[in-house]
Specification:
It is a single chain. By secondary structure, the chain is an all-alpha fold. It contains 16 helices and no strands. The protein folds into 2 domains: 86 residues, no CATH class; 183 residues, Hypothetical protein af1432 (Orthogonal Bundle), CATH 1.10.3210.
Length: 291
């Protein structure tokens, strides 16, 4: 059950801990620590973890919904948290709980709701694309998790800095500078740094954390020496393509990122014009079911 490469050390170093405190990153839910304790156990107690999850009705319902998602393709459907755990395993369960908890960590305001709907749409399309394109070394549930957490630093910065909405609008419209350079010109950080800090602190796999940190970096996608291994590059390419599809279908969530990163993403996913157009047509019905 142990996987040294999939999670950070439990003791976050002092610099990271101070950054988390200064930026007001939401604390890691206790249930995630409890699951990780079981993952390191010689005999994980799934029934005990299911009992903890069942203490929170909405958490249990969200986990069951995740287990029954088409991304997993299991023949049987989960009817309880315990069955969901048995289907998903502790690692995927931990990430599913993190995705549910992330949205809960922010107040129910209109600009957050618009962000979450866009993130849920990108996550749904990312999971679908990973399956459709048979991307090597990227599982559909990894792509979905990454798609949901990719821009989580944005909502943290919206809460932390009153002026960030204007900064974000400027970054979305900038055709020349890297997105993060616009943020860094006005702030002591950017949303990729903040998002990767949260992902590390919430025990997300290292490849997902790295992809969050570098998802606006063209060099990370194209250069031979990169902080991203190929699965991380593919995660970035999948989610960026998902965002492009969302923009084409709905006309919303407009940015200049596809112009900057699209060619590299298409190369990584081997997408020609005809294939991309066909995928765009097929993706539209999928978005109707996004909550």
């Amino acid at each position: 059950m142990k996987s040294a490469d999939s999670r950070p050390a439990p003791g976050v170093d002092g610099v990271l801990q101070q950054s988390i405190h200064d930026i007001d990153i939401p604390p890691r839910p206790k249930i995630i620590d409890q699951i990780h304790a079981e993952m390191n156990s010689d005999a994980p107690n799934l029934r005990g973890i299911a009992g903890l999850i069942n203490q929170d009705v909405s958490l249990a319902a969200g986990l069951i919904k995740t287990a029954n998602s088409p991304y997993f393709g299991f023949g049987r459907r989960a009817r309880s948290a315990h069955e969901a755990l048995a289907i998903l395993g502790l690692d995927v369960t931990c990430r599913a709980i993190a995705t549910i908890s992330l949205r809960r960590a922010f107040p129910n305001r209109a600009h957050y709701e618009r962000f979450w709907h866009a993130s849920a749409s990108i996550a749904t399309l990312s999971g679908w694309l990973a399956q459709l394109l048979c991307v090597p070394d990227v599982r559909a549930d990894d792509a979905y998790t990454y798609g949901l957490f990719r821009d989580c630093g944005i909502v943290i910065l919206l809460r932390r800095y009153p002026a960030y909405r204007g900064i974000l609008a400027g970054a979305n419209l900038d055709r020349d500078s890297p997105f993060t350079a616009v943020e860094q010109a006005a702030l002591p950080t950017d949303h990729t740094v903040v998002g990767s800090l949260l992902a590390q602190n919430w025990w997300l796999p290292g490849e997902i954390c790295a992809a969050i940190r570098h998802h606006h970096s063209l060099p990370a996608l194209v250069e031979s020496v990169s902080p991203l291994k190929m699965p991380g590059r593919q995660l970035v390419a999948i989610a960026q393509t998902a965002e492009y599809l969302l923009q084409q279908i709905t006309g919303g969530s407009r940015t200049e990122e596809w112009a900057k990163l699209g060619p590299a993403c298409r190369d990584l996913l081997r997408l020609d014009d005809a294939t991309l157009e066909a995928i765009c047509r097929d993706a539209e019905p999928l978005l109707r079911g996004v909550e």
